[in-house]
Structure formats: C-alpha cells, structure tokens
Specification:
Layout lengths: L10 E5 L7 H12 L5 E5 L7 H9 L10 E5 L10 E6 L4 E5 L5 H7 L1 E6 L15 H15 L22 E3 L2 E9 L5 E6 H8 L7 E5 L5 E4 L10 E5 L4 E6 L4 H5 L6 E6 L2
Parallel strand pairs: 1-2, 1-3, 3-5, 11-12
Antiparallel strand pairs: 4-5, 4-6, 7-8, 8-9, 8-14, 9-13, 10-11, 10-14, 12-13
C-alpha cells in the first residue's frame, strides 16, 4: 500500500535509548524504509534507563498535544525478549500507541480512552529477523510504520482484552498532612510529585489561616509559590508545574541534587506553623 500525500499525522517516538548510540537512528531507518514520508517527532530519548514509570509519565503528559491520528512509538523495555507482550492500542481520542505491555503505555492510553488492543504477532508487520534484545527496531518500528501506511490494527495481530496497568499512586490525607511522593525528576532537577491541584485545594479547604507548606525528607518546610521566579535565587520552593502536579524546585538550581532525591521519596503538605 502506497502512503497517501494527505496522511500527514506524525509518528512520535519516546525511548530510554539516550543520544550516544545508534538505536534511535536504526528505528528511524526502519520507519523511513517502510513508510517514506512519515513525519517523525522525537518526544524524548532521555528517559532514565529502564524507568518504565518515568517513560509512562512523559508519554501521558505529551500525547494530547499531538494531532489526532498520531502514532506513539514508545520503548522503555527492561523485559525485552521475555514473555511480556508487544502491543498496539487504538483509542477513543484517535491516537494509536505501540510498545511493550509493561505498564509504559497504560497511563497515556487510559487517559485517551482504550478502544482496541492487539498483540503484535503478524510476521508481515515485523522484520524478517527479530533480535531478542531490540524489539524497538524489529517489532515496534515496523508496526508503527504499518499503521501509518494505513494497515488496520487487526492486521497486526489478535485482539486482547487488557494490558498491564501502572499505578502511580494517589496522595492520601493523614491527620493534618496530605502525603504523596516524588514520581518524576526532570532534567532541571525539579521533583514532580503525585499531588495534583485538586487534592491540594481540597486539603487546603479544611484549614483557615495563612496557607500550606510542603516538606520533603531531608528538607525544611517550603512555601508554595505561583512560579519559580517568586522565590529568591537559589531558594527552594513548591509550585504547580506544567504537569498540573506539585513540584519541589530550586530557583536556578537542582532540587534533585540538593535533597539527593529519588522517585518514591515521601512528600508532605501541611498547614503553616
């Protein structure tokens, strides 16, 4: 099937492959061979190695800003070559997701509305030789290219009922504290938590007084500011970033370095004392 000139929606790629090696380039070469003319957009290849949760968050926070029929090719795959499935998903929002069934696709696909899922088993829509360690090149890239060329999802393999979930956790109220945790650390060292604005606002409504502070392990209580620039240079703060989630940041610095932070570190919101 020849690609149609009007099919201009992109293939958007997210991986943990980094920028040193040839892996991303090889995937793009497969796409260029099988779907010449397909626009390709790099979301990121700087996901921390083997961090399925970080890749899932980045994908969830990206998909809605792309054209409706975009094909998202996501590969963070520490279980490559094992019994974990390779899948493709159609969504109610119109976009498609291709990648490993290890939780990576779940948050984005769930928010887009999962309509159909298939396991990628069709020999026609993969490379003739499949490496045990590089399914991004040999299975996922050919599947994404086939979808872009107009292949129906059902042609890629049999339907399956569900996919591996990924639970990022919800903040919980305990006494006079709203407790959450760091779930993502961006390249600036900002610590993104799982405390959303609605949970924060609902918790704040329980108290009268000057407002709330946020505290991370190894740190003092911090003010919650409207933006980074509201704090003095070098000062720590809390703020709601572009994810719509509470972040701990250092103005012109790295909160990750300051607090030796890792995903899973507890964070507490409490009334000013």
């Amino acid at each position: 099937m020849r690609s149609r000139p009007e099919r201009r929606y992109p293939i958007a790629i997210l991986t943990d492959f980094g920028y040193r090696d040839h892996y991303v380039g090889a995937m793009k070469g497969v796409i260029a061979t099988l779907a010449p003319g397909a626009p390709v957009i790099d979301i990121s290849h700087g996901i921390p190695p083997q961090s399925v949760a970080a890749g899932a968050i980045a994908l969830r926070e990206s998909w809605r800003f792309f054209p409706r029929r975009t094909i998202f090719l996501a590969v963070v795959d520490p279980g490559v070559g094992t019994k974990r499935r390779a899948i493709a998903i159609e969504t109610a929002a119109g976009c498609r997701f291709v990648g490993p069934d290890n939780g990576l696709l779940f948050p984005a696909a769930e928010s887009a509305g999962i309509a159909r899922i298939v396991e990628l088993t069709s020999p026609r829509h993969r490379m003739a030789r499949v490496s045990a360690t590089f399914h991004g090149r040999d299975i996922f890239a050919p599947a994404a290219a086939s979808l872009w060329r107009g292949a129906r999802l059902a042609a890629l393999g049999p339907a399956i009922d569900g996919i591996e979930p990924l639970e990022l956790g919800r903040p919980v109220v305990s006494g006079n504290e709203l407790r959450g945790e760091v779930i993502y650390i961006d390249g600036y060292g900002n610590l993104v938590t799982n405390i959303d604005r609605a949970s924060f606002t609902g918790f704040a409504a329980r108290f009268s007084g000057p407002g709330l502070s946020v505290k991370i392990a190894r740190g003092a209580s911090l003010p919650v500011c409207a933006t980074y620039g509201d704090a003095p240079k070098g000062a720590p703060l809390g703020t709601f970033g572009s994810f719509g989630l509470l972040e701990i940041a250092i103005r012109n610095g790295s909160a990750a370095a300051r607090y030796a932070a890792q995903p899973g570190m507890p964070v507490k919101v409490h009334p000013h004392k």
